[in-house]
Design a protein that fits this description.
Largest sheet: 5 strands, parallel
Number of helices: 7
Strand content: 25-35%
Distance between the termini: 30 Å
Order of helices and strands: EHEHEHEHEHEEEEEHEEEEEH
Structural class: alpha/beta
Number of strands: 15
Length: 242
């Protein structure tokens, strides 16, 4: 699933781009896009800042009233957003500046379906490669890229969730434990332990019926009845790894 933001002050252009994206989904049924439309850069930036919105891909016009696309891209990066940016514009005037804000592509309108599809093929493949290695999470008001291998375990304390990293950091998360597990469950090393924990099997040093000891020396206590299933998952993980 991919979160895609379209940002253009012209409704007709938004319609055209969305129709091409829908066509791409039909060509590749395994792809799933969640498309959000924004009619100004400020509207996009406000949504990213206030509503924990983290688009994987931003297709944005450069020439818009108020804040232009180059400025918006720079602010997205300052907020920690790592989404790929494709600029759509009627002029090559800002091409150099676009690459200065690490834009992935700079496409001059009118844009053909073939050109956009080719760009999407390349960018989505790169996004998939990154997803296998990193998560994007909002931590302490900033969107941060966290390496999968750096996550030791996640812990729920009441209505609050914490991410424990191998370097000793304990990060407060503003999402539910269910949402955390949904993000991590695509990686075979992560399993849920009771309702309070999601643990990285690769960082477990030892376990018994009472607790788990991690390779960093941290320890968590197991909920009643969790040991049998966890032990099976632990052995299966290492058998498959080796």
């Amino acid at each position: 699933m991919y979160q895609i933001a379209l940002c253009d002050d012209e409704t007709e252009e938004l319609n055209k781009t969305e129709q091409m994206l829908n066509g791409y989904e039909k060509k590749y049924p395994e792809m799933k896009f969640i498309i959000r439309r924004f009619e100004s850069a400020d509207e996009l930036l406000d949504t990213v800042s206030e509503k924990n919105y983290m688009p994987d891909l931003v297709l944005m016009d450069i020439y818009m009233p108020g804040k232009i696309g180059i400025e918006a891209a720079r602010e997205l990066q300052e907020m920690g957003n790592r989404g790929r940016i494709i600029f759509l514009t009627t002029s090559k005037e800002h091409a150099l500046a676009a690459f200065g804000v690490k834009a992935s592509q700079y496409l001059v309108k009118p844009i053909s379906k073939e050109v956009l599809f080719s760009v999407l093929d390349s960018l989505l493949e790169k996004i998939e490669e990154e997803r296998r290695k990193y998560l994007l999470l909002r931590i302490e008001g900033r969107i941060q890229r966290i390496a999968i291998n750096d996550i030791e375990y996640c812990e729920a304390q009441g209505k609050t969730q914490f991410l424990h990293l191998t370097d000793g950091r304990k990060c407060l998360l503003r999402i539910t434990m269910g949402e955390i597990y949904e993000k991590l469950s695509r990686y075979q090393e992560f399993v849920r332990v009771g309702i309070a924990y999601v643990v990285n099997l690769g960082h477990i040093d030892s376990l018994n019926a009472q607790d788990i000891c991690f390779s960093t020396g941290k320890k968590i206590y197991l909920p009643r009845g969790a040991y049998k299933i966890l032990k099976e998952q632990y052995f299966r993980y290492y058998c498959e790894e080796n």
